[in-house]
Amino acid sequence: MFGKRLCLIIAFGLLFAWTEASWAQSDQYTQLPRSVIEERLRQFAGKDPERETTLRKIFEEAGCRGNRLHEQPVTHADAPNVICTLPGRSDKVIVVGAHFDYVDNGEGVVDNWSGASLLPSLYQSLNSEMRQHTFVFIGFSDEEEGFIGSRYYAGQLTEEQVASIEAMIDIDTLGLGPTEIWESNSNPELVKLMNGIALSMKLPVTAMNVDGIGDSDGSSFKQRHVPTITLHSVTLETLGILHTSRDSFAAIKLDDYYSSYNLIAAYLATLDKK
């Protein structure tokens, strides 16, 4: 997560006095059972190429198959990017991304199978109705080696394609606790919307800024001037779990992980309406 050297600075969480009515559309998604979310999280085994195969299989099980699902070969990467597209009424795009690779220490469940395995569930949750935007869910390869997968994807986009992307949601390292926002590295309007939805759903979210030498896949899109938001769960207390043998399924707080799934699904549904 965020590269291999990190510096953490805690920022105050932002809460906005939005009314329940303002966010009435945030529940317009199909809520999957917790057992499904957990079962997909448990499929973390294997090296990066095996994980890519597993992620593609979960996408197919979630209903993303045929011409909606494809692999994007990435130069100098161990595995291709996995791309699932949910067509919408317009050509405006919302990208939702998470890397599936991990470092050799530990099992890489937190960083970042927790994000990658959630992508098919988010697709399945939004596929319950026709959306205004086209959603593109991407499992990125080789984030830990310098964001190779996301830089390749963002770099090959034409200016016209970049202009069509209204937001990129970067999911990296969930389940260590409640949802956190890397606020200092995220678009203010996207942060504002997330805080409002969390307040209306009575789910916790705060700002936990991660600034330093490291970075995340979202920056590959920021370099193309795409509005981004990075969601994670890291705190000063849990930072030491990453890139160590402690990064295992046992490190996941399943209540918080399922809450993060619901919050992100509602966020995407509401973002589509906005």
Q: Could you explain the architecture of this structure?
A:
This protein has helices at residues 34-41, 48-61, 109-116, 119-126, 148-155, 159-164, 188-201, 218-222, 254-273; strands spanning 8-10, 69-72, 81-86, 93-99, 134-140, 165-171, 179-181, 205-210, 228-232. The chain is of the alpha/beta class. The protein is globular.
Summarize it.
It contains 9 helices and 9 strands.
Shape, principal axes of CA atoms: globular
Please indicate the percent range of residues in DSSP E strands (runs of 2 or more). Answer: 15-25%
Total domain units: 1
Class of secondary structure makeup? alpha/beta
CATH class membership: Alpha Beta
The CATH architecture assignment turns out to be 3-Layer(aba) Sandwich
Distance between the termini: 29 Å
The helix/strand order is: EHHEEEHHEHHEEHEHEH
Q: Write down the Rg.
A: 17 Å
| Order of adjacent strands in the largest pleated sheet | 1-8-7-9-6-4-5-3-2
What name is given to the CATH topology? Aminopeptidase
Sheet with most strands = 9 strands, mixed
Residue-averaged pLDDT: 90
From the structure above, extract its key features.
18% strand, Aminopeptidase, alpha/beta, 274 residues
List the helices and strands and how they pair.
Layout: E1 8-10, H1 34-41, H2 48-61, E2 69-72, E3 81-86, E4 93-99, H3 109-116, H4 119-126, E5 134-140, H5 148-155, H6 159-164, E6 165-171, E7 179-181, H7 188-201, E8 205-210, H8 218-222, E9 228-232, H9 254-273
Parallel strand pairs: 4-5, 4-6, 6-9, 7-8
Antiparallel strand pairs: 1-8, 2-3, 3-5, 7-9
